[in-house]
Amino acid sequence: MQKDSAIRLLIVDDRVEDAEAIVSTLRNGGIAVRPLRPASAAELAQMVASQPVDLVVAADSAAMPLEQVRTQVAASGKDLPLLLLVDRIDEAAVLASLGGGARALVLKHRPEHLLETVRREWADLDARRGLRRLEAQLRETERRCDSLIASSRDPIAYIHEGMHIRANDAYLEMFGFEEFEDVEGMSLLDLVGPQHIDGFKALLKSLSKGEPPPPEYLMEARHVDGSTFPAKMEFATATYEGEPCVQVVFRRREELDPELAREVEELRQRDQVTGLLNRPTFMHLLEGAVAQVGRDGGQYGFLLVEPDHYARLLPDIGLDSADALVAALAARVRATVEADVKAARFGEHSFALLLEGNHARTRAAAEALREAFATHVFSVGERSLAVTASIGGVQVGEKIASVPQILARANSCLHAAIELGGNTAQVFDPGAADRAEEERIARWVARIREALAGEGFVLHYRPVLNLQGEPGELYEAHLRVDNNGELVTPSGFLGIAEEHGLLGDIDLWVVRQAIATLAERERAGRQTRMLVRISPASFANPAMVALIRGELAAQDVPGERLWLEATEAKVFTHLRSAQQFLAAVAPLGCRVGLEQFGSGLDSFQLLAHFTPAFVKIDPDLTDEIGRPGEAQDKVREITARAQKEGITTLAADVGDAQAMSQLFSAGVDYVSGDFVAPVGAAMNFDFG
User: Fold this and answer.
1) 208-217: b or e for each residue (b if 16 or more CB lie within 10 Å)?
2) Can you give the pTM of this predicted structure?
3) For the chain, which terminal residue's Cβ has fewer other Cβ atoms within 10 angstroms, N or C?
4) How far apart are CA 295 and CA 289, in angstroms?
């Protein structure tokens, strides 16, 4: 659930604080939300009828009782999941919700229950929408296919339970029928030579049981006048007007030598350079494996193999020897894999393998191939080469059972192996993904604790430019953590830190480091101010207020140099503790503000309970301000209200001159973003 697929959520709740808590819970859980909150029954009806809405979350409201909400949602005729917020879940509540058309009950005071329920219902809704799109595409495809079949020169018929339900003109002509009514409802057996009746009955019986049809069937076909001719039938599973059926293509068969026919077919399926299967044949086998997994389970492994540094090898051996090198690599693949493994030339110099079995077998096959390449000396003409290989693979099962998914995941693993330096096999096992995630989280928790105890966290800085010409330096502090030599941004670990109760400790580290940096700037004669993010964990933490008071005094830094910001939604849902925190640090001279302002249901209502020194406008509005419309109007409304209240305004993530111009004309005080300067380790921006 990324930003580009935000859930359009309609919330029915009398208390705006509770509605904000719902939005905050979902956003904290990584779900982008565009909230709506009707204030009356009439507004509810209007929103359901005219607004694009994905989910409805409703609590029992005096203005809009649940029964009225149910009726309104049902009357809309839309596939609109309704989630009911309740204090407890019992037998009566479950029965009432099912009878009233609600999709689920959600416990009001259990945010994790809301989060998981919304995720599930959103996934189900997305799947239903996808299914409807596919059904529409299928109908259109069937219509086009029917037109193509009607005009095809190949004799084609559709067979359901052994009977003809569709046949094109070429088919009728082959058997001597005048029109389709002559063959409609006729058994396919009637067009089979007498000597093949018993065998063909067995084939039809197997098809009726859902068994896959053979790729072709050789027999004598019978003309309407009783004469017979050699024919070949090709089968494919299909649907016709919603009915499952079998597509049959009849072809007149020339009496060729069977051995010659086999050799021709073999040549058709093979790559001429390597002798391996060619890509079209392999893809047909892969699609068959995916179909089997989807139909009755089973497991397959898929591997992509690519020689390392191929572009460097070519100049050494010469372009004219490229085929010889690929053939030598293919021979090594063929000599290494077991007899039942299907191997193919998949690209110019890459190979693909399909094998039946579990992840252990797939992994073992990948490792055997890697070692076979690494320990072998390849002969190409008069040259001898040592060539290693990178291997990416995926275990095909119920969790990954579509060809695009398989290819994408295997290709991702292949590139991961290449980026590790080659001579590596990376095989993705969907069954192990959950275990890997748990291990990843545990490693991050340990790394965060190490960084808090010693060295590991660092601060980077981004300048914040005053558009109104006021002098002075203002920087945003951006936290980074050193993870094995790579500096990772907070998006990679703050969610884990919050889940494990480490946000408060991180806030203390950041504020302490920020004040120390301000003290260094003060001693250097620079009157720098710094903008520092804090979390709700700091609002009710006495240690934070004590730290700020003590460090400002010890470092001799004026409190006005420290600007503290918290997200609007967090302040809304932790209002009492946020008010107490503001009352404690304001006398020290510190400025406390709100970021992501304008993202909530009613941002201005918060100003009646919490008076910030500054507000940072929601980045979504900044992104869209270059285009005329709602974003420009909202920013102008925010700046006008802020100026009236004596509140400073900031805009972050400014990316171009057009956005900067619009923000300036709207009266925004400060801006930051890549258009001004990127985040960096040094504080060397020229504010002059």
Assistant:
1) eeeeebeeeb
2) 0.52
3) C
4) 10
